[in-house]
Amino acid sequence: MSRPIGTAAELERRRRRAVVAVRAGERPAAVARVLGVGRGTVSRWLKDAQRPGGLSPKPRGQPPPKLTPAQDRQLLALLRQGADAHGWPNRLWTAARVAALIRRHFGVTYHPDHVGRFLRQRLNWTPQKPRRKARERDEDAIDRWKRDAFPEIVRAARARGAYPVFLDESGFMLTPTVRRTWAPRGATPVLECWDRRDRLSAISAITVSPGRGRLNLYFDVLADNANVRAEDVIGFLDRLRARLRERLTVLWDGSPVHSRSQAVRAYLAQHPGIVAETLPAYAPELNPDELVWGWSKYGRLANLAAADTGWLRDHVLSELTGLKRQPHRLDSFIRHTGLTLAA
Length: 343
What we know:
This protein is α/β, with parallel strands linked by helices. The chain is built from twelve helices and five strands. The chain folds into three domains: about 1-60, Arc Repressor Mutant, subunit A, CATH 1.10.10; about 70-125; about 140-180 and about 190-335, Nucleotidyltransferase, domain 5 (2-Layer Sandwich). It is about 45% helix and about 10% strand. Strands 3-2-1-4-5 form a five-stranded mixed beta sheet, with helices on both faces. Helix 9 (about 260-270) links the parallel strand 4 and strand 5 (about 275-280).
């Protein structure tokens, strides 16, 4: 006979109808035939009805976990050691590596396709894109700068009534920055674009007013395909100086177009109201202006297949102008660096 199909509530009603019918004098065989079930099924329902809750929906049984909670904790400790501690060439964990680690230490086999669900549900891990870090970094020097040098820079700027200025340069390519998007399974979307190296270089700076700590964004987009030169940095600083009444404390990286440039050093010597401070080497995360480029290039302008540099310029100017009106977002960029402007 066909097996009854339906929701848990419908199956419960079917069981209760059968019990009521038999207790009312109907023959179990006739009830089974009407409901489309076997005679043994009706007999089992009659027995279940004698127990409290015996006819209620049964919870679906799930296979017991392959690893115990104690083994979960052991696995988590092993994973935190990094994949390199277990023989792989870097610290990164892939599903296949985790499956091999589980098999090696616990004798349990997981298919790599199921490892992701296990990591999410049991260990609260998620897939993440690694952040690159230069091997040349001096972590102790960076920590000392954050702890000692930067607060002193802020105090000196406050004493001078100067604007702290976080300055950086970047470029926008005509070839788009491609990011993930949604599409039907098996139908990878195609983004038609120019395969050319046309680009726009830009300079921007996040400024902090010395009194109320108000945030602002200033920027300049250069001519098509132009590289940022020392003269461009000087022109940008000169316009910023005129706008902010001379006194600036500029924080930037050790790029050749910054304090390492003879022309820039000469300009700074002529304008003592501008103090330049160099950020620690290989520590771009300390400059909130880096996030201006990340937010615009990899967020707002991702997958933009511009027809030409004029179109690209319009979009860049539009996004940077919109960001200028969002001081709360600029504040989030500064907070993301872990730096505090309170002196």
